[in-house]
């Protein structure tokens, strides 16, 4: 897989205009203008850059999986360094909006270098993009205009600090707007929770738990065609519990049934549920239920 270590090399590959700064590029299509078109297709590639893009498609919708997405209102997409990128030429759009690309080293020595890692939306897929209202889009684009002004002007010792400050503000607004989107997409989050529970039920009942062990959250998310981080954030917002906590609830539910079978030892139950080490199962059970597996079994016998 081809990997690009510098922003200019990455832009050369995309056949886009070389950036004014070796570690920062701002492409901003104002009014009726359109963004420069990158190459029509690419095999999987990676790079060392962050990307923040507002996509407004002048012609057509975007098909992602089985879903058609209307991005004419504007969708904010975040990409982190070393994420695998790939696209084909099935559909070509004229795009309005903006695209800010910056090398991870551009953030070195700043607070944002650590803060940016906390924004989970850099791990979301394109179908989990942030859909902006007209008012939100106006707020975001005004920040981008400030960044572009610093980028285009003769840069001085204050330029980087100002740009970093504006990027920080942009990400804080994006975080706020994603919270709004989570609330408004309650129906979607309910559906995700139902899919999550259904997948675990099928996985357990089919014997895959004994055969393959406890499924990873990454595996479950892939089976649901969503990113791991997005699934976790949506369930956390809707239920107050993370994906791992929901998985543990399923395991504990299965454990309770198995513990009531007297011919099975605690270790047998642990191995049956995919735990490699029975003591870990016992700690998890006690953490969730307040009593150990043996205490649970004895309590049932007393009843």
TrEMBL record:
InterPro entries: Homeodomain-like_sf (IPR009057), HTH_AraC (IPR018060), Tscrpt_reg_AraC-type_HTH (IPR020449)
Domain HTH araC/xylS-type residue range list: 198-299
The entry's keywords: DNA-binding, Plasmid, Transcription, Transcription regulation
Matches recorded under PANTHER family: ARAC-FAMILY TRANSCRIPTIONAL REGULATOR, TRANSCRIPTIONAL REGULATORY PROTEIN
This protein's name: AraC family transcriptional regulator
UniProt source species: Persicobacter psychrovividus
């Amino acid at each position: 897989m081809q990997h690009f270590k510098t922003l200019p090399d990455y832009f050369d590959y995309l056949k886009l205009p070389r950036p004014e700064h070796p570690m920062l590029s701002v492409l901003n299509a104002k009014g009726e203008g359109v963004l420069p078109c990158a190459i029509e297709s690419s095999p999987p590639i990676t790079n060392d850059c962050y990307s923040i893009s507002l996509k407004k498609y002048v012609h057509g919708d975007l098909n992602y999986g089985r879903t058609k997405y209307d991005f004419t209102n504007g969708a904010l997409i975040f990409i982190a360094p070393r994420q695998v990128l790939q696209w084909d030429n099935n559909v070509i759009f004229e795009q309005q909006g903006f695209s800010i690309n910056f090398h991870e080293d551009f953030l070195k020595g700043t607070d944002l270098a650590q803060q940016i890692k906390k924004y989970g939306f850099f791990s979301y897929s394109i179908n989990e993009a942030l859909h902006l209202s007209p008012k939100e889009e106006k707020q975001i684009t005004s920040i981008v205009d400030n960044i572009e002004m610093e980028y285009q002007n003769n840069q001085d010792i204050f330029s980087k600090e100002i740009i970093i400050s504006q990027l920080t503000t942009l990400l804080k607004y994006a975080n706020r707007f994603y919270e709004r989107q989570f609330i408004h997409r309650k129906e979607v989050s309910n559906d995700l929770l139902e899919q999550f529970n259904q997948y675990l039920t099928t996985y357990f009942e089919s014997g895959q738990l004994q055969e393959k062990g406890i499924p990873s959250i990454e595996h479950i998310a892939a089976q649901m065609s969503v990113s791991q981080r997005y699934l976790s954030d949506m369930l956390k917002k809707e239920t107050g519990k993370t994906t791992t906590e929901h998985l543990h609830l399923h395991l504990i539910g299965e454990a309770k049934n198995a513990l009531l079978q007297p011919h099975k030892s605690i270790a047998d139950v642990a191995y049956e549920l995919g735990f490699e080490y029975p003591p870990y199962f016992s700690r998890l059970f006690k953490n969730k239920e307040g009593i150990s597996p043996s205490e649970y079994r004895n309590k049932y016998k007393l009843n």
